[in-house]
From TrEMBL:
It holds the Pfam family p450. Belongs to the cytochrome P450 family. PANTHER family: CYTOCHROME P450 YJIB-RELATED, P450, PUTATIVE (EUROFUNG)-RELATED. It comes from the Bacteria. It comes from Archangium gephyra. GO terms for molecular function: heme binding; iron ion binding; monooxygenase activity; oxidoreductase activity, acting on paired donors, with incorporation or reduction of molecular oxygen. The keyword Heme applies. Keywords: Heme, Iron, Metal-binding, Monooxygenase, Oxidoreductase. InterPro entries: Cyt_P450 (IPR001128), Cyt_P450_B (IPR002397), Cyt_P450_CS (IPR017972), Cyt_P450_sf (IPR036396). This is Cytochrome P450 PksS.
Length: 416
C-alpha cells in the first residue's frame, strides 16, 4: 500500500528534508490527496525522478489521458484563467510543446543571456546602493524580487508601473490555490490578471517594440501560430518562471550561506567559486520543490507500488537533490561540490527555458551581496522565518537582514 503525506503542514514547509529522507528510504512513491486533482503520486528518489523526465508512459497534457472523463479544471468554480493556463508549453506534449517552445527559445539562449550581463550588473548595483542606506532590509522585497522582476519585465515589455501589482497578484494565486475555496477566493485576482494580460496584448499590438511580447503578438497575427488563450498562458508562464525561481535562488541561497558561515567565508576568500556555489545553492536550497505535473498514460509498476492509468504524477525535486545515493553528504552545503548533477531546473524536453538567465542573475546577485556586505546577518532568529504556502515553489515570505554590525546605514557609519 502506498503511504500518504500531507504537504501543507507548517513543519514540512519549514524543513521538508527529514521527511523526504525517510520517504526515500521507505517508499519511492508517496500519495498526496490533492484537493483539486485527487490522488497524486509523488516520486521521491533521484533515479526514478530522472527516469520520469523521459518516460513515454507519462504525458504532460492531462487531456491526453482523460479518455472522455471530465477534466478537473472544467469545474464551475475554477476561474477561466486557470483553464486557459492549461495551454502553456509545460502542459503540452510533442509536437505542440515544440511549436510553443520554438517561439520563445531565442530570447533565452546563453548568448542572448550573456548580452544582458551588463544590465543585470547595473540593476544589482542600484538595488544594493539603496539597501546600504537602510538600517535593515528585507532581502526579498528590497533585492531578490526587484532584480529578476525588472529583468523579465523589460524583456517582455511590461510597463514599470504594472510590475509589482502583477507580482502581488501572482503571489496570491500561487500561495492560495490549494482548495476549492481557495480557487473561489482568488476569482477577483484571476479576473484582474486576465484584464492585465489583455491590456499587455493590446499595448503591443498598437505600440510594437523590440521585446519578447511583441514577437509573440506578431507571431499570432502573422501566422496564426498562437491563439489568444495560448498567448495569455505564455505570458503568464514567462513572467512567472522568469522571476519566481530567481527570487527563491537568491533568498534561499543567502539564508543557506548565513547558516553555514564557513561556506560563506570560503566564498568571500575564493570568489572564483561563485559558479559551483550557485549550483550547490540550487541543489541545497531548491527554489522549485516540484515541477509541473505529469499523467500516467498506462498503469505503471514502480518497486512494488502501482500508479494507476490516468493518475497525476509529481516529482519531488527537493528530495532528489538531497538523495544520499547520488550526493555524498547530501544534507551538507559544499560550495566546491563536483560533480553536481542536481535537477533544480528539471531535465529533458521540459528543462527550464530560463535556466541560463536564472544562473546569471543568481551569480551576479550573490557575488555582489557577499563581497559588499561582509558583516551581514539575520535580523531575526532563524526559527521566526516563515515559508510561503505554495507546494510547488520553495521560498521565504521575507528575509530580514542587518547589513552591518550595528545595523546602521553605511552613510551614518561614515559620518560617525
Amino acid at each position: 500500500m502506498t503511504p500518504e503525506i500531507n504537504l501543507k503542514t507548517r513543519e514540512l514547509r519549514a524543513n521538508p528534508y527529514p521527511t523526504y529522507a525517510r520517504l526515500r528510504k521507505e517508499s519511492p512513491v508517496v500519495l498526496y490527496k490533492h484537493p483539486i486533482f485527487g490522488k497524486t503520486y509523488y516520486l521521491t528518489r533521484y533515479n526514478d525522478i530522472v527516469s520520469s523526465f523521459t518516460d513515454p508512459r507519462l504525458a504532460n497534457d492531462r487531456r491526453n489521458v482523460l479518455e472522455g472523463k471530465k477534466d478537473p479544471m472544467d469545474r464551475w468554480w475554477v476561474p477561466k484563467l486557470f483553464r486557459i493556463l492549461q495551454n502553456n508549453m509545460l502542459a503540452k506534449d510533442v509536437p505542440d510543446h515544440r511549436r510553443l517552445r520554438d517561439l520563445v527559445h531565442k530570447g533565452f539562449t546563453p548568448r542572448r543571456v550573456e548580452e544582458m550581463k551588463q544590465a543585470v550588473e547595473r540593476i544589482v548595483s542600484e538595488l544594493l546602493d539603496a539597501a546600504e542606506k537602510k538600517p535593515a532590509v528585507d532581502l526579498l522585497a528590497d533585492f531578490a524580487l526587484p532584480l529578476p522582476l525588472t529583468v523579465i519585465s523589460e524583456m517582455m515589455g511590461v510597463p514599470e508601473e504594472d510590475r509589482l501589482t502583477f507580482h502581488r497578484q501572482m503571489g496570491g494565486l500561487l500561495d492560495n490555490l490549494t482548495t476549492p475555496a481557495g480557487f473561489l477566493l482568488q476569482t477577483p485576482n484571476a479576473f484582474n490578471m486576465m484584464r492585465f494580460f489583455r491590456k499587455l496584448i493590446r499595448l503591443r499590438q498598437t505600440e510594437p517594440r523590440d521585446d519578447l511580447l511583441t514577437a509573440l503578438v506578431q507571431a499570432e497575427e502573422q501566422g496564426d501560430r498562437l491563439n489568444e488563450d495560448e498567448l495569455i498562458s505564455m505570458i503568464f508562464l514567462l513572467l512567472l518562471a522568469g522571476h519566481e525561481t530567481t527570487v527563491n535562488l537568491i533568498g534561499n541561497g543567502t539564508l543557506a550561506l548565513l547558516q553555514h558561515p564557513e561556506q560563506l567565508q570560503k566564498l568571500r576568500e575564493h570568489p572564483e567559486l561563485i559558479g559551483s556555489a550557485v549550483e550547490e545553492l540550487l541543489r541545497y536550497g531548491n527554489p522549485v520543490d516540484q515541477p509541473s505535473p505529469r499523467y500516467a498514460r498506462e498503469e505503471i509498476q514502480l518497486e512494488g507500488h502501482v500508479i494507476p492509468k490516468g493518475a497525476t504524477v509529481m516529482c519531488l525535486l527537493a528530495s532528489a537533490n538531497r538523495d544520499e545515493s547520488v550526493f555524498e553528504n547530501a544534507d551538507t552545503l559544499d560550495i566546491t561540490r563536483k560533480p553536481n548533477r542536481h535537477v533544480a531546473f528539471g531535465m529533458g524536453v521540459h528543462y527550464c527555458l530560463g535556466a541560463p538567465l536564472a544562473r546569471l542573475e543568481g551569480t551576479i546577485a550573490l557575488q555582489h551581496l557577499v563581497r559588499r556586505f561582509p558583516d551581514m546577518k539575520l535580523a531575526v532568529p532563524a526559527e521566526q522565518l516563515r515559508w510561503r504556502g505554495s507546494i510547488g515553489l520553495r521560498g521565504l515570505k521575507a528575509l530580514p537582514l542587518l547589513l552591518s554590525p550595528s545595523g546602521a546605514p553605511a552613510a551614518m557609519r561614515e559620518a560617525a
